[in-house]
Amino acid sequence: MRGARSLLTLGVLALLLTGCSTTDEPPTGSATDSATAHPSVSASISASPPIMSSPVTPSASPETPTASAVPDESTMDHGSPDSIHVMVNKLNPLDPADYAPEDLHVPDVPASKASMELRDEAAGAAEDLFAAAADEGVDLTLVSAYRSYGYQQGTYGGWVERYGQAEADRISARPGFSEHQTGLAMDVGAADGACTLEQCFGDTPEGAWVAEHAAEHGWIIRYPDGAEDVTGYSPEPWHLRYVGTEAAAGVVRSGGVLETAWGFDPAPDYGPDSAP
């Protein structure tokens, strides 16, 4: 009997051991399957048995790029004439009216006449623009740059005598209201003189290149076609304004009109207190 009991006991033990071995089979919907569906957690699950595993640490997400390369509007100084972001139009004159920059110098670019000056930063950007154009076989020339208050008096007065004040106000700024007086504006043309200071400049290869690439070097076309009701001036595809590369990119993204990009009201006409 004792032997029979021993045999019976061994048989029961064998059955129990056989039943326990089934826990080695992976159940349906196991961690192996879920790791396939969620690869980011697979390493944590397979690295150690569940009872010993540490909490899963999410992988670092890629750095989010900045939404815009445009400088924070609150950091731009639109009032000081010394700022490269100064706003000058028919409703925003220079203050003081006879402002003159202190850092003018002559850029090393082809020019229609000698000694034309720009502010230091703008002069360097002009050199970069002209060099980039030349590298692509586009020959530009500098036609006009800084103009003093007194110079602008003569320029504007000449247009008034020729066309009358209403027309002069469409094509020339009154003294104290001119971007040229900031030292941050320049007029460019084709080296062969085609369409110099004429709207057809925009249709020349030089004008087309400037329109496409000026912003890459910090310049914008200040008075674009179709914006006279905002800028107050007829289109001038030759008139470039320096604002810096980041701000220029922002202006282009905003539609190409400086007032709109910087949140200023349209300035189609002079205010009542700005008689010439």
Topology:
Blueprint (H helix, E strand, L loop, with lengths): L1 H19 L10 H7 L4 H6 L56 E2 L12 E2 H16 L4 E5 L4 H15 L1 H7 L13 E6 L14 H9 L5 E5 L4 H4 L4 E7 L2 H9 L4 H4 L15
Helix pairs in contact: 5-6
Structure write-up:
The protein contains ten helices and six strands. 35% of the residues lie in helices and 10% in strands. Helix 5 packs across helix 6. The protein starts with a helix and ends in a 15-residue tail after the last helix. The chain has helices spanning 2-20, 31-37, 42-47, 120-135, 149-163, 165-171, 205-213, 228-231, 245-253, 258-261; strands at 104-105, 118-119, 140-144, 185-190, 219-223, 236-242. The protein is an alpha+beta fold and 276 residues long.
Structural class: alpha+beta
Our measurement of the CA-to-CA distance between the termini, rounded to an integer number of angstroms, reads 131 Å
Helix content: 25-40%
Got a strand count? Answer: 6
Contiguous uncertain segments of 5+ residues = 1-70
Number of helices, counting only DSSP H or I runs of 4 residues or more: 10
Shape: globular
What gyration radius follows from the Cα positions, in whole Å?
36 Å
- Beta-strand fraction estimate: 5-15%
Keywords:
disordered N terminus; two-stranded antiparallel ribbon; 10 helices; alpha+beta; 276 residues; 4-stranded antiparallel sheet
Concise structural overview:
Helix content is 35%, strand content 10%.
